[in-house]
Design goal:
alpha/beta; single chain; binds adenosine monophosphate; three-stranded antiparallel sheet; 2 domains
Amino acid sequence: MPPPRIVRTVKALRATVHKWRSAGESVALVPTMGALHDGHLSLVTLGRRKATRTVVSIFVNPTQFGPADDLSRYPRDEAGDAKKLGAAGVDVIWAPNADEMYCEGFATTVTPMGAALPLEGEFRPGHFAGVATVCTKLFSQVGPDIAIFGEKDYQQLCVIRQVVRDLNIPIKIVAAPTSRDRDGLARSSRNAYLTPVERAAAPALHRALKGVAAIAATSGLINKAIEVATHDLLAASFAKIDYLTIRDAQTLGAYEPNAGRSGRVLAAAWLGSTRLIDNIAV
Ligand code: AMP
């Protein structure tokens, strides 16, 4: 496979996509912040199955990081990413710099409510406005037929579906299942921050979610299940649990076990100075 072209300007990107479109081709977009791992590559595989051309964006979006977040230490490895994306058969890497993404005087944002308000919305104020704004811009820059998002960031997926629905953006959002290491830990660029001892403890998060989902699906004793899982996480040396909860899988509002709707167990918890998030279906 030839290495993918790295495109830095909206003008060049549009010219490329226009050429594909004129030839009747379809386009999948996979938005990322780089530091790519096998989880990201599973989104690329899905994109390649569903469209004839695949664009992967790499942009560490400053507006979705809060003041206490890890923007300056967020891992970056464009050369390594390009190699992986070449091997995965990606056509174009869309990697604008911050000035190309946010022009001088930039003053317009997309502020999602609804699914963006609880959970991450409470712990990371402004995060989803940053995500929704940059994704809306990416959709408008690339103009893909479909965009692939990972269930790993389940609330983000719900928020993006909501934005696309509410703003009539003519793109199909496709969800990719969470890719995990053998021991169950969801793959994440942030796993690189974990010390070996923390890495060994980290799969307790997935085990806790599975425990809650299993009890919720059978006995319905949700509060008890969450109590047990919280205890297990703290015993596995998680320092702090931001949330561990079951929500309606679509709205992320309260989960009504008998309402015939799907539930989702979601958690965010700290292992040392690293915040991990994960979720599974009930
Ligand atoms: P990020 O670079 O962390 O912003 O992630 C870019 C995209 O990859 C998002 O749609 C994520 O949900 C998705 N992603 C990240 N990790 C995983 C994973 N372990 N499994 C599936 N998708 C993932």
